[in-house]
Amino acid sequence: MGQSEVSEEVRRVIAPAVAEAGLYLESVRVKGAGATQVVQVILDLPETEIGSLNSDQLGDVSRAISKALDADDVVPGTYALEVSSPGATRTMTEPRQFRRARTRLVNLLLNDGKELTGRLVSVTGGDDDAVLELNLKGQKKLVPLNTVKKGKVELEMNRVEEAVFADDDAHGDFDDDEEL
To answer: Of all residues in the chain, what percent carry a pLDDT higher than 90?
Structure first.
């Protein structure tokens, strides 16, 4: 059995564990030859969710994937399992990927060579007729996805609405009525 057939078998075996975790199975790749192979699994949140896959979720589903692979023994010999998310700056080409990037600042390379950068507000339509709605400096711009060669999320290090403080000590230990 070749690596692509093994990859498809791995996909079949782990799909229930991934679905049970409420995640999307982006890709499976088995690479290497000989005694040790590497099984790479890329997972994402469902396209209806905004945010990022966290390390606790990855850890939990990694254990479930490992159990499923061990029970079915579809990878011959020993293997190393790598489970990760696609990453914040992956290249986006599919409607699903753009739906996951809602609320984010994106850079689009259009088929005609032009570039647009704006906040992705929504993705409407189906996979064949998807339209991206961007906020370009306060102006609404509709961009048919079939005019987009690729897109990328621009990392924003200061998005306040995504900041999460572990506890009050992370930003000072002041009472509401305490004077500074």
So the answer is: 66
